[in-house]
C-alpha cells in the first residue's frame, strides 16, 4: 500500500500545487493511486473492442459485452452484480448499403444505413433523386404525392431550424415518405461534416428509437456535395441504391449493475455510469467503450483501495443509449421508488480525450461543493466545474429525475470524426487519457459517496421543470416526448 | 488586348520583382495574361468531374472524356485534333467489394478492389485470414500449398524491401496465390497510410497493368489495424469477403492530341501533357483532371494570346497512365521515328496544389536555361527548377526516350489523401491553383517552343542509360521491364 500511496502522490502532483489549503484524505489518494498506478483499463478496452467489437443494443455482440461486463465486475470484486433486463420493441441489424449515381455521370457513393431504418428490395432500385429541404419538412410533406418512386435527398436551404425541432419532425417525415412510396431517403453524413474523409456518422432513425420501413442512409460529405452541385444546376439525377438491414420483433437488453455497498448508509446510492452499447460500423471505442472501461476501472480502483465509502457506489453500464437513452430511462422506471435515495450520477460519455472537468447540467448550486475535490480528481491537471449541459448522455436522465446528473468533460479533439463512424476503433484511444478519466470519476464518485453530508437530495418534479426552463430545454424536450421524471 | 496586357502585368507582379535584369517578352506576358485573367479552367474541370466523373482506361467514361477533350480542343482552336488509338489486352470495371471480420469479433471492413484484379464467387466466401509478409514474398511462396482456401493478409515484418522490388514481385505472387487456391488477398490501404479516415487508395494489380484472376483488395488502415492486432495475438481470424469486378477482352483507348503548329519549325515539337484517365472511386479531380484541364487551359491561353511560337506545341492528354503509363508508352511507339524532333515534354501530374517549380528528371544541364523563364512562369511566385525525379508520370516516358521530361512540381498537401481514393472530387481543387498551374506550363511551353535555340536534342539510348544510372533507377526500372526507349 505504501508504495502505491507514494506513487499516487507523485502522479497526482496537481493536488499539492493546485490546492495548497486542502489535503486530500488518504482514501482519495488510495483511490487515485490505484486508478493511475495499477490500472487495467487499457487491457479491458482492448478486450471489449477487439474481442467483441461494435455492440448494437439487442445484438449478439451487445449480449456478449454484457456477459463480459458481468464477469469483469465479479472479478473486480463488486457486490450484487446483475443484469437489469429491459426490452426493445424491435431488434435491428445492418447487413449492407451501397449506392451509385448513374446519371448524369457515374459515381460510387459511400452510404450507411441509419439504425432502425428499412431496406430496399434486393438488387436495389434505380430512381430519380430529388431535393427535400430539411428546414421545411412540414411544408415539403404537402407535396408528398410527388415522392412516389423517388429517392429523397435532404438538403438545407433557407433559414436553419433548431436541431431539436428537425429531430422531432424526422420520424413523421420518414413515415410520410414511406406512405407516399418513396424509394429511400439520403441524409447528410451525420452530426459532423467530414469533407475529405470517407465517413458517415450513424444515428437512430429518431430519438425514441422508432423503426421506419423506409431505407434512410447517411452519405459521405464529398459524394453528397457532388449530388448537391448537380441538383443546384437543375440536372436530373439517377441514383441506384441497395440497402439491406434485418429487423426483428422485440429483443431483450439489459443494464449491467454492480455495487460497492456503503458502510454506513448502504441505501444511499451514488451512480457511476457509461453506456456499453455502441454503433456498429466501428468498435465503439471512443463512444463509449472508453466510458464503460473507465467505469470498470474506477470500480476496480475503489474496490482495491483498501477503503470503503459510507454510501453505496453503484456502477451501471447502460445499454440502449444510442437509441435514445433507453437503458437509463428503463433504469429510472425500474428504480422509481429508489430515486429519493439517489445522491448523484456521474457519467463518462464525451469521447476519448483527457478529462477537463465536470458538467453539472444546470446545477450551479453544486459547483462550489464539487470544486473541493476537483484538484484531487484531476490527477495532474485541475478540473473545471461548470453547470454546462451535455444533451444527451445517460447523466441527463438522472437530471430529469431531479438527481444531479454529472458528466465527465473531456477534450476529445477527434471525437467528431470517430464517434458513430467506421473509424471508432481501439487504436484511437490513448491509455493516459483513459487512466486519467477513470481516476477522475473514481475520485469524484468516492468523494460524493464518502462525504459526511449528502451532496444533494433529488429535486421535485416542479423544481426539475424550473431547472429545465432555466436551461432553455423545456420546449426542446417536449418535442421529443421527454420532461421531468421522478418518484412522485 | 491592351486591357489584358495590363491585367497580366498586374497579375504576374512576380516578374518585375523576381527578375529585375530580365524583361519578359510580350508573347509570354500575353500567354500568362490569357491563362490568368481569361481562364475557363475551373469550368472545364467541373464539366470533366461532375459531368463525366471517374475515367478508368477503356471505360465508357474514359471514352466520353476523350470525346469531350476532342471537342474542347477544337473549340479552343487547336489544329490537327485527333485521337491516337492504342489497345489494352483487357478491359476492367469495378462493381462492388465488401468484407466483414466474422470471428473472433464482428467488424465491417472497408475494402476496395485493386484495378485489373478478379472477383470472388457471388455471395462471397468466408475463410481464415493468414498473414503473408510482403518483405519475403519469394520465401513465402515456398509455402503456397498452405494458401488453399485462405485469405492472404499482407503485412510488413522485418527489413522492408525497396518498393520497386516489392512492386515487381507482386504480380508473380498474385499468380501463385491464385494457383494455390487462395480465396483473396488483402493489401494495405495504398501508398498512403490514412489512419482515422475511411480511405482506400487504389492501384493497378501490377505496373504493367496485367490482369490477375484472384481478388485483391485494399483495406482502410483502421480496419487493417484490427486484423493486425488480432493476428499478432495469434488469434484465428475468420473473414467474409465478396468482390465483384467485370473483366473483358481487349479494349480500345486513345491519347487525345491537338496542336498549335510552329510558325518556323513546325516539325519540331514541344509536348504539353497530362493524363485524362483516372481511377474510379472518385472523380479523378486531383489525379489528373487538374493536369488535363491545366493543359487545355494552357492551350487556350496560347491559342488566344495573339502570338504563335516558332515550333509546334503539341497538347497530349494521355490515357492508361494509371495502368503503368501505357498511353505515353503507346505514344512513344507510334511516334518512334519522330522522337528526334521532340524538344521537350512538360507534364502536369502532381495533384492540386499551387505550382512550386519544375522537376527536370536528372537533366541538371537544363536547370540554368529554364531558370531564365521561371519568374515569368511563376505568375506571382518564383518557381524552383531542379533535376529531381518524379517516378512516374508520363513525363518520365519522354525521359526514357532521351527527350527532356519535365514535371510541373506542386505543393499538394492533401493529395496523399485524395489521389486514387473516393474523395478525389471536384471540391478539392482551388481555382487559383489550377489557374496558376495552367499559366506556369503555358509560359514554359511557349518559351521552349519559341526560343531561338532549340532547348535540347534527344539523348542517345546510351546516354539515357547513363542518366538512369546517375539517377539510381536502372535496376529498379529493369525489375518492371522498362529501360531506355528511343528512335535508334
Structure report:
Two copies of one chain form a homodimer. Chain A is of the alpha/beta class and 488 residues long. Chain A has 16 helices and 16 strands. In chain A, helix 3 packs across helix 9, helix 5 runs parallel beside helix 9 and helix 11 (367-378) crosses helix 14 (431-450). Chain A is elongated and about 70 Å long. The two termini of chain A are 46 Å apart. Mean pLDDT of chain A is 93; it is low at 1-20.
SSE inventory with pairings:
Two copies of one chain form a homodimer.
Chain A: H1 2-11, H2 14-18, H3 26-37, H4 41-52, H5 60-76, E1 79-88, E2 92-103, E3 107-109, E4 111-113, E5 125-133, H6 137-141, E6 151-155, H7 163-179, E7 184-187, E8 216-219, H8 221-232, E9 237-247, E10 251-260, E11 265-275, H9 285-303, E12 311-318, H10 326-334, E13 342-347, E14 355-359, H11 367-378, E15 384-386, H12 394-400, E16 405-410, H13 415-418, H14 431-450, H15 461-470, H16 474-479
Parallel strand pairs in A: 5-6, 6-7, 7-8, 11-12, 11-13, 13-16, 14-15
Antiparallel strand pairs in A: 1-10, 2-3, 2-9, 4-8, 5-9, 10-12, 14-16
Amino acid at each position: 500500500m505504501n508504495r502505491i500511496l507514494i506513487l499516487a502522490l507523485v502522479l497526482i502532483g496537481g493536488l499539492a500545487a493546485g490546492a495548497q489549503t486542502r489535503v486530500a484524505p488518504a482514501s482519495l489518494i488510495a483511490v487515485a493511486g490505484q486508478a493511475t498506478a495499477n490500472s487495467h483499463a487499457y487491457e479491458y478496452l482492448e478486450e471489449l473492442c477487439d474481442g467483441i467489437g461494435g455492440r448494437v443494443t439487442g445484438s449478439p455482440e451487445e449480449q456478449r459485452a454484457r456477459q463480459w461486463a458481468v464477469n469483469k465486475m465479479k472479478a473486480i470484486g463488486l457486490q450484487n452484480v446483475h443484469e437489469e433486463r429491459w426490452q426493445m420493441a424491435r431488434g435491428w441489424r445492418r447487413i449492407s448499403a451501397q449506392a451509385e449515381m448513374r446519371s448524369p455521370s457515374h459515381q460510387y457513393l459511400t452510404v450507411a444505413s441509419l439504425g432502425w431504418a428499412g431496406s430496399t428490395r434486393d438488387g436495389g432500385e434505380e430512381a430519380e433523386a430529388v431535393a427535400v429541404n430539411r428546414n421545411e419538412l412540414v411544408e415539403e410533406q404537402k407535396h408528398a404525392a410527388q415522392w412516389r418512386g423517388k429517392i429523397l435527398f435532404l438538403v438545407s436551404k433557407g433559414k436553419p431550424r433548431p436541431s431539436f425541432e428537425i429531430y422531432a419532425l424526422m420520424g413523421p417525415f420518414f413515415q410520410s415518405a414511406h406512405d407516399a412510396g418513396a424509394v429511400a431517403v439520403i441524409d447528410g453524413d451525420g452530426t459532423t461534416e467530414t469533407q475529405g474523409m470517407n465517413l458517415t456518422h450513424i444515428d437512430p432513425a429518431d430519438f425514441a428509437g422508432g423503426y421506419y420501413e423506409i431505407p434512410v442512409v447517411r452519405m459521405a460529405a464529398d459524394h453528397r456535395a457532388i449530388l448537391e452541385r448537380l441538383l443546384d444546376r437543375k440536372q436530373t439525377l439517377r441514383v441506384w441504391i441497395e440497402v439491406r438491414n434485418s429487423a426483428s420483433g422485440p429483443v431483450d437488453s439489459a443494464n449491467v449493475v454492480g455495487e460497492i455497498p456503503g458502510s454506513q448508509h448502504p441505501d444511499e446510492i451514488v451512480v457511476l455510469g457509461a453506456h456499453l452499447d455502441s454503433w456498429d460500423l466501428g468498435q465503439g471505442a471512443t463512444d463509449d467503450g472508453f466510458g464503460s472501461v473507465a467505469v470498470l476501472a474506477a470500480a476496480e480502483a475503489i474496490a482495491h483501495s483498501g477503503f470503503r465509502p459510507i454510501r453505496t457506489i453503484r456502477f451501471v453500464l447502460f445499454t440502449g443509449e444510442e437509441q435514445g437513452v433507453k437503458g437509463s430511462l428503463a433504469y429510472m422506471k425500474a428504480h422509481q421508488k429508489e430515486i429519493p435515495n439517489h445522491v448523484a450520477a456521474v457519467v463518462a460519455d464525451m469521447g476519448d480525450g483527457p478529462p477537463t472537468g465536470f458538467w453539472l447540467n444546470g446545477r450551479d448550486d453544486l459547483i462550489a461543493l464539487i470544486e473541493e475535490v476537483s484538484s484531487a480528481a484531476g490527477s495532474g491537471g485541475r478540473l473545471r466545474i461548470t453547470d454546462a449541459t451535455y444533451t444527451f448522455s445517460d447523466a441527463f436522465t438522472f437530471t430529469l429525475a431531479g438527481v444531479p446528473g454529472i458528466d465527465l468533460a473531456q477534450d476529445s479533439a477527434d471525437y467528431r470524426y470517430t464517434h458513430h463512424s467506421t473509424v471508432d476503433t481501439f487504436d484511437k484511444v490513448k491509455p493516459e487519457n483513459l487512466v486519467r478519466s477513470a481516476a477522475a470519476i473514481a475520485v469524484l464518485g468516492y468523494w460524493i459517496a464518502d462525504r459526511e453530508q449528502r451532496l444533494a437530495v433529488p429535486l421535485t418534479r416542479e423544481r426539475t421543470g424550473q431547472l429545465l426552463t432555466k436551461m432553455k430545454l423545456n420546449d426542446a424536450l417536449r418535442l421529443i416526448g421527454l420532461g421531468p421524471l421522478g418518484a412522485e
